[in-house]
Amino acid sequence: MRVFFLKPVLNVALIGTAALGTVSCEEWPRHRHKPSTQADALEAGEPPSEGLSIEWLTAAEEDEPNLVPAEGIPLAQGEGLRAVGTLEGLGWDSESTADRVSACETTLAFPPAAPGEYTGDVDWITVTPEEEGVLCMELSTDHPTARLDTALYVLGDCNEPVGVFVQPGSTTPIGMDVPASHIRWAIGLDATASVAVGLAGFFPDDADLDLDWTASLALVPSVEGAADMLCPRGS
Question: Which of 17, 45, 49, 38 is nearest to 227 (CA)?
Fold first, then answer.
């Protein structure tokens, strides 16, 4: 499995202060005719995420073992990365029992369900948050019916998944059993450890299916009440 990473820098364009003036009826709506102090100011009604300007930078191709995340890519608030890859085979064996002991002799949180384990490829996107914020994930494929797990794991001292993030107010891991065509989630993080998105498919059960995917991860400011409003859209 080969994964290509691209690392962008996100710049937030703030809404400029508009000067008040008198307009005629032909100039309605008024906000479109008020001069802004910034040429790239957001139009009224646009979502805050539209103020994120992303410049994508090419990084090196990476190879990784199937079940071991790569070293984390440092991610500061206002930075993001994109990755593309291929899941080579999908499927789940409910009768198999996965090894739950890490190289550091701690309990593994992967696979996220037990008993059972994935019979196809597992891809990882690993980041190391340098400060707290909201981690935004978006992934898409061209397959109309495939189902994926895109859970987010905390990595331990041996760079292995030892914890899994759950949806707020529940015990269900975030990003589980989702349609492969388009996936979005966002969750707050601190800067205590590296984290990794584990990408794997369980439906259809097809060892010969090659599923190309494109994903993006971005760390945006955590603003009370904003939820995922600052997450880039369609990145």
Answer: 49
DSSP 150: E
Residue 227, CA distances (Å) to 133, 183, 214 in order: 11, 17, 23
Domains of the chain: 63-220 (2.60.120.680)
Tell me how far apart the alpha carbons of residues 162 and 168 are, in angstroms, rounded to a whole number. Answer: 19
In angstroms, the CA 130 to CA 136 distance is: 15
pTM passes above 0.70: yes
End-to-end CA distance of the chain, in Å? 23
**Does residue 23 or residue 147 have the better pLDDT?**
147
Residue 43: closest CA among 78, 13, 11: 13
Cα–Cα distance, 34 to 17 (Å, whole number): 9
What pLDDT band is residue 25 in, cutting at 50, 70 and 90? low
Residue 62 has pLDDT above 50, yes or no: yes
Please name the residue that has the structure tokens 């802004």: 36
